Amino acid sequence: MFSLTEPLPDRLLAAFADEFKARPAFISRAPGRVNIIGEHTDYNDGFVLPAAIDKAIFFAGRLRDDNRVNVLSLDYEGKASFMLDNLRDDSLPGWTRYPRGVLWVLREEGHTLRGMDVAIVGDVPRGGGFSSSAAVEVSMLELASALFGIPLTQAEKALLGQQVEHRFVGIRSGVMDQMISAVGQKDHAVLIDCRSLETTPVPLPQGVTIVTIDTGVRRELVGSEYGLRREQCEEAARILGVKALRDVTPEQLAANLDKLPEVAAKRATHVVNEDRRTLDTVAALERGDIEAVGRYVNASHASLRDLYEVSIRELDIIADLAQKQPGCYGARMMGGGFGGAVIALVRDDAVAGVLDAVVRGYREATGREASVYHAKAGPGSSAMPVT
Ligand code: GLA
To answer: Per the residue annotation, which of 45, 177, 214, 275 is the catalytic one?
Structure first.
């Protein structure tokens, strides 16, 4: 849960009162995420090990008596107004897309909605691979579920958020980002089985800091490279005669690799071994073997670079620099790829030195400034009444 006196909810309540001359009925919160390991496995029904972070998107809202939706964004300093039967109006500002998408999906699912006054604020860095859009979707779902009295489990919220991506935005994303935003736990990563949606909290090790180092490079993966990877994985699964690559072990794949076209073979090799690495990482965390965790994380980066081919020079430079520093257990690119941030696991007393060396080395190699963030694992999404 969260407190209404925290800086962001506090600002949101004040802005809501200012704009709508009333108090909202509910405030919701949904966090962004980091991903320790398990990349490009979620849409293959596989395993991921993300953690929700202490940065989040907050919504405040109350119902209206008509079908109008008024939205105020503190971050974009913008306002928009639209009717519930015109949610697909593309002339509306881009930042309204995800909240509109949530209402659209709920209506498609047969829920009867009403208009509302809504205000939004957040501090999840946008485009850095922290899944700010999934946090917007899940937070809006928390708000809508509370306002309309629609009972939804955390997994159902995650699946509806994913539907927004698939059916409204047009990206066939996996379910990791929405799931971890909904089910995160303080001081824990969460092992998620992306087929059954079973979740297992895994305590994060003492003495280790999770940092992210953002390249500052942004690329849209809409429809192009991301969708292509997904198709290549589906092709591999079809040829191997399984429902998804999750159903193949590294040993089975090795024995059948010659049946696959070259590119599909590379993609499948990444996915199948990444699933194994993710489960091995959980086992290593459970026995306190952080050196082994670091080796899996480094292997994940090499695989994403060489086999899945979703890394870029800037990500490779940062991952290489980090991996070489004393006190850094492991580092790898995080998220979809083609930009965004590297995640690194660093011994607490080495954090300042590692970050200093990486930021400096990156500047020398590229002329760019990297931005760093110390990730603290926090709770998943929730909503609370405002009295
Ligand atoms: C993006 C998608 C996720 C996942 C990652 C890659 O973040 O939104 O569903 O597929 O890429 O692991």
So the answer is: 177
